[in-house]
Design a protein that fits this description.
There is one protein chain. The chain has a six-stranded mixed sheet with strand order 1-3-2-4-6-5, with helices on both faces. With 233 residues, the chain is an alpha/beta fold. It starts with 8 loop residues before the first helix and ends with a helix. Helix 4 crosses helix 8. It contains eight helices and six strands; from the N terminus they run H-H-E-E-H-H-E-H-E-H-E-E-H-H. The longest helix has 17 residues.
């Protein structure tokens, strides 16, 4: 394989953005763009598959469920334009993994250092509930992303769906481990060079109720970062 044909993250991102493999998800993402809530009226929506975002040399990879219909589906950047993203990027900034505490739009100057953010499913699903078939169609994108992120050593799975998706992506083309490691906040499972760290999702349902606090999120990020950089005690 020559340098000209070698896979790259940018080429994979273009492929993700152009994907139309799941008709139900395509209808959902385009319907959201066609009839946005009043606060986003007049904005141009991305309304395509959402690629990952961050440092190509990242040692820490964060994985979520799927883009929000009026968040990443609008802005084109994962975890951007909604309350979940506000929580996540503020935590990445506190951890020294981002140059600013907010992600508002592509091109806003945000830069991630040693971190990369992705999703299991790349289109906004109805009710935030992708089907197993939709997950399986999309999981190859995450598998290929992780393979291209050659420096990655820690994966932070935000929620049970992301935990399951990360394990599936790491075992693409191979049998899943039995018994399957169970998700929990603070759970850890090692798979070769990569270790998966479980964290409750940064959804409003968790952050508004106190199920996930800033201190809890910071602790998982510190543990994952320490492991990835070799600085854990």
């Amino acid at each position: 394989m020559t340098a000209r044909t070698r896979p790259t993250l940018s080429a994979l991102s273009a492929e993700i953005a152009a994907c139309h493999a799941c008709p139900r998800l395509v209808r959902c993402r385009e319907r959201a763009a066609a009839a946005p809530p009043r606060r986003f009226a007049g904005e141009t929506y991305w309304a395509r598959g959402v690629p990952g975002f961050g440092d190509a040399k990242a040692r820490v990879v964060l994985v979520g469920l799927a883009p929000a219909a009026n968040g990443a589906n609008r802005t084109g950047r994962v975890f951007t334009g909604d309350r979940s993203g506000d929580w996540l990027y503020a935590a990445l900034h506190r951890a020294g993994l981002a140059n600013r505490a907010a992600s508002t739009a592509a091109g806003d100057g945000l830069v991630l250092r040693d971190a990369y953010v992705a999703c299991v499913v790349r289109c906004a699903p109805p009710g935030n509930r992708p089907t197993p078939i939709e997950r399986d169609r999309c999981i190859g994108f995450l598998a290929r992303e992780l393979a291209l992120l050659r420096h990655a050593r820690a994966v932070v799975a935000l929620g049970a769906f992301a935990w399951d998706g990360a394990i599936r992506a790491l075992h693409a083309g191979r049998a899943l481990p039995r018994p399957r490691p169970r998700f929990g906040h603070g759970a850890v499972a090692a798979f070769g060079d990569l270790t998966v760290f479980g964290c409750y999702h940064v959804s409003q349902r968790n952050t508004f109720t106190g199920k996930l606090t800033a201190a809890m999120l910071d602790a998982v990020l510190a543990r994952a970062t320490g492991h990835a950089t070799g600085s854990s005690s």
